[in-house]
Design goal:
TIM Barrel; eight-stranded parallel β-barrel; 249 residues; 8 helices; alpha/beta
Length: 249
């Protein structure tokens, strides 16, 4: 299948990772916070600093919390306010996703946020992978005015969702861009591109040991011991560059 509009988007959680994405030759950044929650809204400070130091287009995640994608009225109000704030800051796009309690796309609220974000393009993120019917969800997202769908094809990792990714691309028929994300690396980039997706999305994440010399035992922030206090995650520019090489060949 013809590979069209081949782009690489890097999911970054810090200014350092944004700089790594640029060094690697990526096309675009999705800027988030809280990797252990799958990405939430980043601080205005990191957004402003990234816009100052990085020339790549920066799309900002608007997700008020971790967990599910069904938001109450207060959370929805926060999302609208965050979009307005990031528009004023000068970002190049917004990333979001809302589902109804029954697992369908919340078309009404998503469309409202797309209108708030206008003229910035909006990506509907991997909330779509939690929808009850992906085919229906694709049509619903298109109806909201979103420009891009980020998806793993309904699988935990995109390499396991290639059949569905191909089907989604065919269904979309260029009405919306389909971007594959989750578990993307240089080893599987070719297979993912063969599905016809328009872009690949990855973190290129590695970790380094904290500079802390004193390390208190038996304590964890938030009471979640699985979240390492002394491992610092960041984007390895070389890993991203390997994917860029596969995409641009």
């Amino acid at each position: 299948m013809e590979r069209v509009l081949r782009k690489v988007e890097v999911c970054s959680y810090s200014l350092e990772s944004c700089l790594a994405a640029e060094k690697a030759g990526a096309d675009r950044i999705e800027l988030c916070a809280s990797p252990f929650e799958g990405g939430t809204t980043p601080s205005l400070g990191v957004v402003q600093a990234s816009l100052k130091h990085v020339s790549l287009p920066i799309n900002v995640m608007v997700r008020p919390r971790g967990g599910d994608f069904c938001y109450d009225d207060l959370e929805f109000e926060v999302m609208k306010a965050e979009i307005e704030t990031f528009k004023a800051a000068g970002v190049q796009g917004i990333v979001l996703g809302i589902l109804l309690p029954d697992g369908r796309v919340d078309v009404e609220r998503t469309r409202e946020l797309v209108q708030v974000a206008a003229p910035l393009p909006v990506t509907f993120h991997r909330a779509i992978d939690f929808a009850q019917d992906l085919a229906e969800a694709v049509e619903d997202v298109i109806a909201t005015g979103c420009r891009i769908i980020l998806t793993s094809g309904g699988a935990d990792k995109a390499p396991d969702g290639t059949a569905e990714l191909k089907r989604m691309v065919q269904q979309a028929a260029r009405r919306i861009e389909i971007m594959a994300g989750s578990g993307v690396n240089a080893a599987n980039a070719d297979a993912l591109l063969e599905t016809g997706v328009h872009a690949l999305h990855l973190t290129g994440k590695v970790s380094r040991d904290s500079r802390m010399e004193y390390r208190k035992e038996g304590i964890a922030l938030g009471g979640v011991a699985a979240v390492p206090e002394y491992d610092i995650a960041y984007t390895d520019w070389a890993r991203v560059a390997q994917v860029v090489e596969r995409v641009k060949k």
